[in-house]
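Please fill in the sequence for the structure shown.

STRUCTURE ENCODING:
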């Protein structure tokens, strides 16, 4: 599975961004996730969408501000980010977790900077 993210950029605190991720296929994909990694910090999973169950979950740090969604017809995953804070600054990666095997595929990432 090949993944390409887009939509990152510079935004002021309190602003919004919508990240997009196009996948080469959703075939055999169990979940689409968004991870982020800030400089000097550990990688963090911020949102998950389990495709068979339409189940979503979020890190406590983004709950109520971020929304993950997918469009299976277009092989797209999205992350709507509202109420952005400086601590949301990171490189955001789209990740496809495969069904039945222990494998994940990562996109190259899109940087998000929240600063005034």
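FILLED IN BY: designer on duty
SEQUENCE:
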């Amino acid at each position: 599975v090949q993944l390409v993210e887009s939509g990152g950029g510079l935004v002021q605190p309190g602003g919004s961004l919508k990240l997009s991720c196009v996948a080469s296929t959703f075939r055999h994909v169990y979940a689409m996730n968004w991870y982020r990694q800030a400089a000097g910090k550990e990688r963090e999973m911020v949102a998950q969408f389990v495709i068979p169950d339409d189940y979503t979950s979020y890190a406590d740090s983004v709950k109520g501000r971020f929304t993950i969604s997918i469009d299976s017809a277009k092989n797209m995953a999205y992350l709507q980010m509202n109420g952005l804070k400086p601590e949301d600054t990171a490189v955001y990666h789209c990740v496809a977790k495969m069904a039945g095997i222990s494998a994940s595929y990562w996109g190259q990432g899109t940087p998000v900077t929240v600063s005034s």
